[in-house]
TrEMBL record:
Signal peptide: none
Name of the molecule in the record: Sulfotransferase
Sections of the chain in a coiled coil: none
Classification via InterPro entries: P-loop_NTPase, Stf3_sulfotransferase
Taxonomic path: Bacteria, Pseudomonadati, Pseudomonadota, Alphaproteobacteria, Sphingomonadales
Amino acid sequence: MNEQNIEAPRRTPFIGALDRVLRAGRALGLVAPADLIKEHMLARAVEDTGLDDFGDDWFERPLDALLESIHSEARLNAAGDWAARQQFHHVLRDRLWTQMWFKRHPEILARPIPRPVVIVGPMRSGTTRLHRLLAADRRFAHLRSFETISPVPRPGFEDVLAGRKKDFRPKLASRIMKVARLANPRTLSIHPTGPYEPEEELGLLVASMWGMKHEAQWNVPGYGRWCEGEDATPAYRHMADLLRLIGWSQQESSLRPWILKTPQHMLDLPALLKVFPDARLIFSHRDPRAVVGSAASLAWNQTVIYSDHADPNRVGREWLRKSTLQVERMMESRRTLPIERFIDVQYADMERDWRGTMARVYRFLGLEMDSALPGMERYIRRSRALKRRPHRYSLSEFGLAEGEVLERMDRYIRRFDVSMEDAGDSAGSQRDRANQAV
């Protein structure tokens, strides 16, 4: 491959201006300090909602680890710690409202989650395309983007169900996405979306302060390694209960299987299968040079917003390590899986012939595909409109060499006969074309 030297993108002027305004506001006493202290954050959420039941207090363990890493490693700027404060408050308030809904409507927790279809693959391996193609089939249930941002309906949602008012969450999601695009105009090329687009359940794991979203957002390697040594089952149990709540809020039939996906499952397959024992798994595979380069790019474009000390070389090394760990854990977990429970899908096959590849997936699922094709084709057209420019990145901008990536991932490449991309399509001159993101 002819690796091009591409400089890591810089932070946008919008973030620089926001950071200066926040610093000035704090100096004048007009803006409160972030106060990222657990006891204070819990008390603020209780005061804001008038509720005091956060559910299973296991979430405090990852929260403690995350806060310790933020204080000791993240080196957040003023915009970063302000955003962290808002994010934590949002999650903690949602936990309180979650328990409120379970008490008001105990039937929610009785909803079954039969035979979910779970797409499992490393970041940037085409899982979003698989997910959204399947979500176009009305025989499956799926999350929408506003529901992964705000999984929990606000008090008074009964009026929404009765048609007396509109759900505020899509409008909130739209506002958040507009701000995200100001902070990082590359958002649409890295992961094109909209409030109603099918989306992964990563936000449901964040509800337990769990998962790689935090590592892709902040420099918190200590937190990441803490999570890697823990049993994720409590986070997945809470995720399942949030799916039940979302299904109830959608007035969705509990008989329709959910389509799920997030790269976090690569690390947590034992917990996933403990909570969803009848899950059917679709494993996606892609040239690791593209996986690592694109994952590092995604993480860089977030961390550079929240810290003035983001280092592209550190980001590259961490996501090479993390991507390697994902595939190693996935391979280990698959050893005991019955062969009829899973199917492997190559990114390159989806590129060459997505219809033929999806037909093979539908045979695995035991379903005919013809009725789903019109919806899939509409998604392909819509994704091209969403994705306005290519996502460009290289391994070299993150201090990585192709040979090192290939060496670290050699066992994975050989085990799954991963198709390698040519110089025009891999990490050196990457073009994640429409509907390929994540």
